[in-house]
DNA sequence: AAATAACATGAATATTTCTCATATTGAACT
DNA sequence: AGTTCAATATGAGAAATATTCATGTTATTT
């Protein structure tokens, strides 16, 4: 056969593969099973008659052929995205309004770059961030006060469509040279004896408490701080422990400001999802916002994984 | 659904559609049925929620959305081709030898640009053109004297793979203001009374004689000339009629040097095919040569159609 | 108004892609 | 080394998609 039946699917596969470092992670990211990715990769390789990556290593490493093909993907896929965006504008018009409600405190940090990217792509869409804390952010969707909510709770609701954004690890933070630094990972009881420093939100919105400490019957003293830096400062000065998303603290960890350990053997992972009204799913710039958030997040945030829904 | 499931297939479709001017022609070019093209186009349009082309007109006209998407195709598809070429070089090495045997006289004309393009893509492949006329060019493949033959006869042979190149119309040529110019198209009897000016090849290699005049029992006098210009010069000076490929004479027709008419109601069409040894099909630069010939031909030669095999 | 050519459509078929269940592999750990 | 664990591979069946076939529709030509 003369014309290679290579498709964009293959390029998206390769890109996901290198960005997520393995077949399994890539599969999640593409909303496929690991098996599908394996089959597809094998098919692509035999189509080209070339091997594209060394699977034995972690993260996977590209062969020369793989690198050349990835280079194509990096040229082509952004062009495709830009085209689809232009077509979407042609379809629905360029202008509109997009109000985002945030459930989590730390979300501001990573959302900014994504919002900048969105503004560049859709200059005529008015972007609004609903501040404050909402007991039930989904009601904002029903009320029509928000168009997109970003939440960790994606239990299906009528007329609301959820799209997984990503999963991130929550790390336990302790002062350098703290006694607990000797442990590979922390267990519930390790939190019993010291105050827990958190954002000023109710207990049940703190994953560590709701999912780890409460089930184990442990209720540490709490102390609150508004800003991420403030929490870190308190931890560093030995006022207590904290638990924060890995991507929020990674710059501090690199400078050895505090020490971090996983919570539990497999770590404590949380997921973020975007929710929108079912009937808005076709509105181009809303869907595109989510695409942009995903792209930016995976490109910028260290140590995140695809959400599994 | 967030990520549009657009694929290269769709881009190839759109490109074929505009280059060939209609669904039916595009289908032939893509080796598909008209139905498949229609379905596929419809699927693409509903995927994007936009109409891409006005079908009522001939040639089809793109909508704004169609134009934008074609722009993407024109960026992306050449990149893909270049990448596949690079991968092919990685696979088989860059160097080799490619000997081409030509059956038809006029082929030299259109083959040159394609050969130039090939040389640019594969600078280390040694390109050879076997000159002269061969009774049975396929034997050159078996002998190993040629790697690719270009022929109008694609009847299946053991161990030989044929790939259709294109179909072209053979036009009857007559002096301006000749009596026959009043006719819309010529019939066999119209050739009875004047000499036929041809290349110096046996009767049965001249399509007009073999497929039109002989069956009708008409045997005009013949006169031979080596070069296309020479034939045209003879026609223009009223020494007889000729029949040549449309693309070979189109520059002369534009300057009204001679007058052309179709042969028979539907015109006389001939096809060209490339043949190679079955076992060479995997050799990258051989297959790529055919791809390049097809691309260059469709881009440069006026009035050709996909061959139907 | 008939004939023709190009395109559309629905149902049947063919092909491709995906998933499920399970095997294999390779690294990490006693 | 043997065991365990996570990651990848594989085969077979299921699901989804693409293609064809047969035919209908539409627009254009004669």
Write the layout of secondary structure elements.
The structure is a homodimer of 309-residue chains.
Chain A: H1 8-20, H2 23-29, H3 34-48, E1 53-54, E2 61-62, H4 64-92, E3 96-102, H5 107-121, E4 125-130, H6 138-143, E5 148-151, E6 160-174, E7 196-198, H7 207-213, E8 222-224, H8 228-236, E9 241-245, H9 246-254, E10 259-261, E11 268-277, H10 284-300
Parallel strand pairs in A: 3-4, 3-5, 7-8, 7-9
Antiparallel strand pairs in A: 1-2, 5-11, 6-9, 6-10, 6-11
The structure holds a DNA duplex (30 and 30 nucleotides).
Would you kindly provide a written description of the structure presented here, covering whatever features stand out?
2 copies of one chain form a homodimer. Chain A is built from 10 helices and 11 strands. Chain A is α/β, with parallel strands linked by helices. In chain A, strands 3, 4, 5, 6, 7, 8, 9, 10 and 11 form a 9-stranded mixed beta sheet that branches. Chain A folds into 2 domains: 8-87, Winged helix-like DNA-binding domain superfamily/Winged helix DNA-binding domain (Arc Repressor Mutant, subunit A); 96-309, D-Maltodextrin-Binding Protein, domain 2 (3-Layer(aba) Sandwich), CATH 3.40.190.290. In chain A, helix 1 (8-20) crosses helix 2 (23-29) and helix 5 (107-121) crosses helix 10. In chain A, strand 7 (196-198), helix 7 and strand 8 form a beta-alpha-beta unit. The relative contact order of chain A is 0.15. The first copy, chain A, is 41% helix and 19% strand. The interface between A and B is medium-sized, with 32 and 32 residues. Chain A binds a DNA duplex (30 and 30 nucleotides) through helix 3.
